[in-house]
Amino acid sequence: MASGTKPVADNQYSINLVNFSQRLKSLYSHWTKRKSDLWSSADVLAVATPPHSDDLRYLKSSALHVWLFGYEFPETIIVFTKKQIHFLCSPKKASLLGAVKKSANEAAGVDLVMHVKGKGDDGVSLMDAIFDDIRDSEIIVGHILKEVAEGKLLEMWDSKLKSAGFPLVDISDGFSELLALKDSGEIINVRKAAFLCVSVMNNVVVPKLESVIDDEKKITHSSLMEEAEKAIMEPSKAKAKLKAENVDICYPPIFQSGGQFDLRPSAASNEDFLYYDSGSVIICAVGARYNSYCSNLARSYLIDANPLQSKAYEVLLKAQEAAISMLKPGNKVSASYQAALSVFQSDAPELIPNLTKSAGTGIGIEFRESGLNLNAKNNDSIVKANMVFNVSLGLQKLQNQTSNPKKQNFSLLIADTVIVTEKSPEVATSRSSKAAKDVGYQFNEDGEEEERNRKKSKVNGSERLKSKTTLRSDNGEVSKEELRRQHQAELARQKNEETARRLAGEGNGSKDNRGSSKNSADLVAYKNVNDIPPPKELMIQIDLKNESILLPIYGNMVPFHISTIRTVTSQQDTSRSCYIRIIFNIPNTQDASSSKYQGSIFLKEVSFRSKDPRHISEVVGSIKNLRKNVVARESERAERATLVTQEKLQLAGNRFKPIKLHDLWIRPVFGGRGRKLSGTLEAHANGFRYSTSRAEERVDVMFSNIKHAFFQPAEREMITLLHFHLHNHIMVGNKKTKDVQFYVEVMDVVQTLGGSKRSVYDPDEIEEENRERERKNKMNMVFQSFMNRVNDLWGQPQFKDFDLEFDVPLRELGFHGVPHKANVYVVPTSSCLVELVELPFLVVTLNEIEIVNLERVNGGQKSFDMTIVFKDFKRDVLRIDSIPSTALDGVKEWLDTTDIKYYESRLNLNWRHILKTITDDPQSFIDDGGWEFLNIDASDSDSDKSEESDKGYIPSDLEPESESEDEDSESESLVESEDEEDEESEEDSEEDKGKTWEELEREASNADKEKGVESDSEEERKRRKMKAFGKSRAPPPSSKFTKRPKMRK
Asked: Could you please report the per-residue DSSP string of 653-721?
């Protein structure tokens, strides 16, 4: 239970005592300060709340109850005096309100007096008792004049009050001013109501309109209203993570079209069909409440707008933004409407008669706060911080030059919820776009008519509204490829300008920030000769304590630090003798140790022979294990040295209960050879903590370090996961990583014994599938709940700058490809391109992409490659190979809709050389047209000069591997052992970097040949050569290019 909230008898309602105390104190303070003007010199405040009604209505008496107690108490009379508060209500309400008795006395120094009305009591005697307590010769009683008494109790109270002989005054202005200033809790409620409005508009209303218009369906305004209302009442339908019991509508959603428009919130959606022919206007308005606090949002959508509609909308939008800009503390409320009117006076004076007489009102618990009307007459009210306004501006009864009655008349309306802050107004509904390009839809019914209209609009100084989506016309469809081509041409222009500015700002300087590695000359096995352990016998000895080996050389034990050893191998010859061969790291001519120890002789390799193969195996194994441990330790130390210092995790403690998700596995896994354990993920005040039952297995992920957060439910995969892509590396065990994933397996890997096929009607098979389906749905819901609660936590003001929200991959836009080694399913999200199931993970931030080049795009190919070039030209390009050609159109469409410029080429390009050329001479790159050298159409038209134009950009047979491959070389399957692969990768890294035994034999053979010793015949040499190289297949001599091997980033 929240702090300051006291439970009541039935455990269904609770009054927040902290809020009650603060607000009651504010009421008495405001009443005292503004008694003479806003409160009409009233000595007593009488507020009577009518019975409950299912109708939507906004009463100041009800608003006062919600503001003070958090709930409305129907058929309740409250009388405020300077020393007492009288309640006349039923026994149940009296027991609920009794919880505030102590808080009222502490906050305002007043006592609570309860007048409990029985079931059959008319309340007259209780009213007389109240009048006797407040009666005074000069007392003035204030009440809300415009509220009509409803019900027997309130009618009797109204009659008794008017006949009691008290002077009566209206106190509506006092309550309006009091409720206009919102505290932090009220602002949060308004923001959540605004978020719900935006979610309904963006995720329900607009997609529904686009679907109806695109498919030319018939649907009534009232049907659209019902669907929008259901989305408000059930926020999950609008993808809003809000509790349904806390939300309500402000008014039934409004949908208008076909020439009949009413811009008042009381307007109704009629039974007419939605009209969306060319030149029509559709007005949509939704209002939502969260915890009784209102928010409003209205948009006008234009179908194939004519010049008059385009101009009217652009001026209206400019005027509404001007009105919003004037809502700053200290300005008069009337200045907002005057700013809007000034825009029309300068840009479209002929439209002033059609402008609404108000630019909106204050909004809060009441939809319209009467004291804060944004009109020209309200010169007395002053804008203050923490006020909230519904800025609603419209043009009504505009006339089109047409005989069609459904298009002859049209209106326009734009409304937003605006919160006044100390600096600039905050538009809480800004995520619902009102830009001309986003509210304009265009039919392409006739090319000639469109061209005439375009020319006409240019003459009138107003461009036609750009189409947000292509809608089907009577004569067919515009080619998607043509629309993409036009959009890509515009993106190319913008991209070249952006790249030119960036390259001009960076200059040609480059720095190498890599830290210097540890020098071999700095390694010391023993600081003193006396530290060398005494030799037992002349055999290879391994000193684990000092991380050294002792080699018998010319009768002496010579120490070598384990880090000086590159590889160690053993081999047995035909005479059953075993050899151990040790190859050392030697400095090159540029190494610092060469100049430090000039004239020194470095040992390159040494070999020993033994008759004991068991001993040789033990020595080799011990040296390899020691070297592996030392290399791992030094690598971890070097990685930790480059880590960015993270803030300390602040545990939830007593402030709130941490949000938990149990029985999760983590990737990358913790080190160690012990059994892997599942753990718990907890969301605390400023970050996540994952921990297992082992004290050393703990990972903290700070909110400030999270760059992207993903939730991927299990659909066709075996796991449900949460994935965090970070700004800076962290250590998970002894691994340095930017990606941390927490997952649970929703399906078990089952292997059927016996090999016989099972029938699809097998009861055991069906039961097993049902169990798996239930487990999958259950885990998806558990993860979804955790994600929703964390998103609510991230919605708090202190995390606003982090811009955090879980992103869900869009499976329908995915495609298969090979970004690393395995063929995986790559999926876009709203801000990234990801693959989160197989290791190593793939997370590409879309706004870091410079361009995308689609390579090997040819009609005869079954697949193509995607090369992603990043804005940081020092970063290696990312290749996703072997994408099926059937996905080409979908990939192009996705790239185009995300405003990413893409090119196509028939061959793979040497991107490392291309980027080096650009960074070495950026000015030449800019002067030559930027990225247009990749334009396949332009290159085809200039084929005579192809050799010169392609200079420096010839295809590469072999794309160098990225350095990141070594860092990310982890297991690619969920069932593989990471430990086993670590051993394999260690062995791979220790493959003969010196001369192999075959090379040594070949050298010996060549030496014998030079001495005239022919040990083998010519035929034997040919046979050995064919045996060595028979498994590889050379390309035919006529081939111009060798087949490019698959190289992964």
From this structure: TTTSPPEEEEEEEEESPP-SSSPP--EEEEE-SSEEEEE-SSTT-EEEEEGGGEEEEEEE--SSSSEEE
**CA-closest candidate to residue 14, choices 63, 70, 89:** 70
User: What contacts 441, CB < 8 A, 6 or more positions away?
Assistant: 210, 213, 301, 302, 303, 304, 467, 468, 469, 471
Average pLDDT, the chain: 80
pLDDT at 632: 78
CA distance 617 to 442: 78
Distances (CA, A) of 955 to 882, 907, 959, 1043: 17, 6, 9, 12
Asked if 862 contacts 1032 with a C-beta cutoff of 8 angstroms, the reply is no
Residues 6+ apart with CB under 8 A from 69: 15, 20, 97, 100
Length of the chain: 1049
Chain centre distance of CA 84: 52
Helices H, strands E: what count in the chain?
28, 38
- Print burial letters for 688-727: b (CB count within 10 Å at least 16), e (below 16): bbbbbeeeebebbbbbebbbbbbbbbbeebbbbbbbbbbe
Q: Which of 222, 280, 273 is nearest to 398 (CA)?
A: 280
Q: Which amino acid is at 925?
A: F
Sheet holding 815-817, edge to edge: 815-817, 824-828, 832-835, 842-845
Percent of the chain scoring above 90 in pLDDT: 38
Separation CA 676–CA 486 (nearest Å): 54
Q: In what order do the strands lie in the sheet with 605-610?
A: 565-572, 578-584, 605-610
Please name the helix (run of DSSP H) or strand (run of DSSP E) that holds residue 1018, with its range, or none.
helix 1018-1029
Q: Is residue 690 a contact partner of residue 667, using CB atoms and an 8 Å limit?
A: no
Instruction: For residue 968, give the DSSP letter.
Output: T
310, two tokens: 């385009």
Neighbours of 886 (CB within 10 A): 11
pTM over 0.85: no
- Give the residue with greater pLDDT, 747 vs 842: 842
Tell me the C-alpha distance between 649 and 55, whole Å: 49
Strands 863-870 and 806-807: unpaired
- Across 495-635, the runs of DSSP E, i.e. the strands, are 541-543, 548-553, 556-561, 565-572, 578-584, 605-610
Q: How far is CA 819 from CA 125, 674, 740, in A?
A: 84, 32, 19
Output DSSP code: residue 909.
Answer: B
3-class secondary structure, 965: helix
Tokens for 154, please give them: 């309130």
Tokens of 507: 């200059």
**Cα distance between residue 1023 and residue 1046, in whole Å:** 31
Predicted local distance difference test score (pLDDT) of residue 980: 41
pLDDT tens for residues 328-358? Answer: 999 999 999 999 999 999 999 999 999 999 9
pLDDT value for 455: 40
Q: 537-596, pLDDT tens digit by residue?
A: 788 888 888 888 888 888 888 888 888 888 888 887 766 788 888 988 877 644 444 455
H or E, element range at 417: strand 409-419
Reduced to 3 states (helix: H, G, I; strand: E, B; else coil), residue 894 is helix
What residue type is assigned to position 867 of the chain? T
Task: Give CA angle at 185 (179, 189), nearest 5°.
Answer: 85
599, burial (CB in 10 Å: exposed 0-12, middle 13-18, buried 19+): exposed
Does residue 88 sit in helix, strand or coil?
A: strand
Q: Provide the β-strand partners of residue 824.
A: 817
Q: 3-class SS at 49?
A: strand
For range 775-803, the mean pLDDT? 86
Cα dihedral sign for 918, 919, 924, 927? Answer: positive
Using CA atoms, how far apart are residues 132 and 189, in angstroms rounded to an integer? Answer: 41
